[in-house]
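User: Predict the full complex structure for these chains.
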Amino acid sequence: MNKLILNSGLLVSLLLSQNILAAADPWAESYRLEALAQYEAAARSLETIISNDVKNEFAVLRHGWLNYLRGNHNQAIKDYKKAIAMNSKSLDALLGIILPLEAQQRWNEASSYASKALNVAPWNYYAHIRLMIAEEGLRKWDTLVKHAHSVNSRYPSDATVLVYLARAYRWKDDKKAARKAYQQVLERVPGHIEATQFIESLS
Amino acid sequence: MNIKEKFRKLLFYIICITGLFMLHNSSAYSDSHEWLVNSELFSTASGYQSSVTRDGFMNAGIHVDAKYLDSAGFGVGYTYAQVFGVTDKFDITQHAFFASGNYNYYVDSLSGKLGFRADYYGIEDSNSYTTRTIVPGPGGMGGSSIVQTTFEFTNIIDVVFAQLSYINFKKTFYVDVGYAFSDYDLGDVEVQDIDIDQWTPTLGFGWNEKYDWLQARLYIIDLSNGDSTGGVTSYESVDLTWTHWFKPGTVLNMDSFTAGLLIGEREFALDPDARIVYSIGHTQIGTASINAVWKINESFRIMTYYGYSRYDDQENMNEYASNDFYINFSKDW
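Assistant: Here is the predicted structure of the two-chain assembly.
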């Protein structure tokens, strides 16, 4: 009985200490609140860090990420721009800013940042995928076909690149090439909904 | 030359130089991935039916626009136009230029984009006609001579335009409100100068996965006096357009097709989409039009347009029709 009381007491104090720790450590607090999908509060908990240390690159990046998650895209873009100004070679920031820009359908700006990321890391997968999303938004089908082929040759096992390739061929009304690309998607992701629907629509 | 004329000439030269600079350096802009330069060359040819004053119309012009990413842009343009009058009626020569700027603000709470736009248009319409009178020689002895008399006057027109617009991110809903103030400094001393207020509220809807777009724009035009319009001081009309985009390789390889209808009356209008001021027309009392766009590649487009319009020339109690053919070549650099 005494052991049970002792264990319960230890558990309660552990939980309390975690909360006290979280309250004392804004980083821990921001992770805890993010896990609870309380993005606004998570971002707010970082603001004391940023106000005390304006050059804390990671805090600024994380603030941008949390603002993106809560749908505050304008603030997220500002945060990421601030992070890029601190470190122009930061792939985290260059790739991060594309997310809120694409959420606002600012395809030209997204393309511009994806190109900057590719200048730093020419075959970065995420930069290529996000650039392809922008090319789709801009309806640049010829560019997207060339781009997707080129990325496919570097990442031959990837299904997402093949989905963009297939979509570009669909828009160009090249059903044969679209079918071939979608079949390759199904080899990598059996039952892929978009690919299945397209191939069924042809038969 | 007064200060106003000097200012207009200076602005005209600035616009020309800016346009040439943008075109000349277009590759420098495009290579940065931050500027997109577009140029359009266009021309219209019109023939009039049953007009007692006009035989035909033509124009040709260039628009150059530079867009900075998705945030802002500016454009300049020049159009030369000519109205061919019937014998003993006015020919009109027009020089029109404009400068336009816009800024976009993205609003998360509205899930869309707010657009702010401001334009300035400067126009010179030179009206002239020449009469030839046969004067008999003295004493009925023959040797008659032809006396030529030329009448000329120039209208100077300044228009400022502002527009606030909203489009949602899904591109299924659009609304704008535009206001234009036009100052017509008329060279014909028999009529008073005119100031014009124009409001153009607009609604647009997209559907069918953005393959279709319907737009309605009201034109509410108020004149400060009706001296040159037979006493009429206000015009109302609605301009309806439906655009359908095609999948590649479907109908004649068209990229899009638009059908338009103008119902009501319109004169002295500024068309904010075409960026043209209709300063030399009579009262437009209806138009039916179609246009088609062909996308030759990702950066080059050709648009052709045909419109049938009816006009009311109140001064001469003459209702007439016009057939308009238009072609536009558009290139992204």
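The mean pLDDT of chain A is 90.
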